[in-house]
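Appendix B, Record 12. Input sequence as logged:
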Amino acid sequence: MIVHRCRFVDFMPAAINALAFTPPTTRPILACGRANGNIEIWNPQTQWNLEKTIPGEKNTSVEALTWVHQTNLSDTESKLPRLFSGSSNGMIIEWDTITLRQKKSIDSYGGAVWCLKNNYANTSLAVGCEDGGLCIFDIEDEELILIHKFMRNNSKIMSLAWDCEDKYIFTGSSDGNIVQWDVRSKRIIQRMTVDILKGKDTIVWAINVLRDGTIISGDSLGHIYFWDGKTGTVLQKFKAHDADVLCLVTNREGSLIVSSGVDRKCNLFRVVDQKTMDTDTLKEDDNKLDYIQRNWVLVGFRRSHLHDVRSIALLEDQVFVSGGVDTEMIVYSYNKFLRGNIKKLPYIPQKPLICISKSKRLLMYRNNDQIKLWELGEAVLPDSWQLEQIPRLDLVKPQKAILEMSLKESHYLTASAISEDGEWIAVANTRIVKIFKVQEHSSTKRKLSIQKIKFPQNIVNGRCIGAHQLLFTPDGTKLLIVYVDSVVAVADLENWQRNEIIFLKKFDQHANPTDDDPIETVISIAVSGDGKWLATGDLCNRINIYDLENLEYYTSLPKYGSTHTTLSFHLSLPILVITLASNEFFIFDVKLKKLTDWSQKYSQNLPKEFLKLENKIIGCSFNPEKNAIILWADNYLCLIDFDKCNEERLLCFEPCNGWQKKLPIQQKKGKKLLNEHNINFQLVQRYQPLMFVDFISSNTLVIVERPFTSILENLPPSFYKAQYGT
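Logged structural output:
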């Protein structure tokens, strides 16, 4: 077997600026806002599955996020929390988390938005701006309207928090002041000032208010303050960090606080109640009267990140999540924050940004607003190869892309595809779909050019809409499109030269579901090798199959207990592989409309070691020469050999280290010895984070990696404090 192991793809994840969990009145969802404007939606209930990514815009960054859930709405509406973001371009946006488009937007009237937070009643949104203004927006009854702008301060508002009764707003500024605003009178009640470094402004980066009125602040000198909210006096002060405190979070009870920042330390504070004798009462009465004094103690810290931590979010009684400049999210256990294991969520996109033309040996990569095309070179051929062994192979030499195409669109791309013959390229964002004809010039060095083809746009309610998924049929004559409204369309390209590209059929099964679940984003699309069958799946696990020959709906698969992650057709058979976030997978025979015999026997009895793997399956690849599949995630390959599975043999799971020959493997007590030729379920975890895996021909595999070291090389230097004697 030949393996092309490529590392020339220049994917670079953006820094994490904001994290926010949905309120406890709805299902838990985590929104992650990045510096490039993208917002990721993660589901902790499905083993931290990245469900979708809301594309950003050029020259914007998400600086703040908040969820709003108004439970007084109708039952249907109350299930859907509203997501708001504040950006560096001064816009406040409400996002449609189904279509991944802007639902509403409004100017902040104060420049860049550095912080925003809804009140506890979910009726108002407070926004802190670049010009020092504090704005209040009405968000009741699906509105987003500016109702008041408080007197402008002389410095930027970098943080804010509501009190538990929604009477006051506390803001932290870039001049070291904490200001208490009265929401009704629109006046300043009091000011509190943190320590000021001579000749330099102190910034209050983070602020929060507990239910008992205590105010907690974190500033650029590394201090954590505890203030009396009534008198504005300092109750306690900690020099807890060696540099700026950028974020802090508290639980609802107000007994626990986690702070972090530039020094990468995540500090844990807990409250300690102490009984104190009231001396004033003793003068009047000999009877002792005690009261409870709340003191905070720094319990300990963890340092798990490699760069600044910009945001922390808390899912009550379950987990903390932190993120920052190093682009990774880290999940900590709520009850074992200091000692428990951490979980690093993948920074690699869970839907591949890469597709290939197998016949032309072309690899296409989609960036935010750019398409790059490479021609695959030669890889090292090992001396010998066995199916159950994954060898160590040299890398394909880095090479220059033979085609680079930058798109003049303000919104980032959501989908891209290249036809099997390499003659078509299609791209889309949430507003438009574009197609290009690829032309090859005859010369010594391969050179490609592209021609934009006029494509009919889909107009809904007077607005042009884009797509979430694109795919060409294997013969390149049709383009399959999943629009943002979940309608699936089939476009005929055969008469493109006469400008007669038409839609042959539109399927609305996802847009008009017959069950009680709401409309959801279509996240998967696959077409069979003969171009006859099309499969699509959404986040409600509605997986539909369409007959492309007769252009009609064919059948739907049963819903699975865990969210599906990928759909993949066999290269030549009407067989569909469905992978789930639980790492289970099922194999469906389309013609018979049922699971295959193998799947009925084994899919519910997969090896426990495989099901316990933390990272989710991203893709499935078929080797044309073998009756086997490769399932892959960002940090492993798993080879399942169907020829070694029979009625007498169970699934035999075994990690593989590469070329080394294995001695006979001893299974659990009472089981017979098995040698390597009996292994039918093999795991390889050697490779760096994987962005793409697929066969381009018989026994020829393409693997695209993006090592974390290459990510770190592109980051600025992190904070370092020299220790005495070093």
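DSSP finds five helices and 58 strands in the chain.
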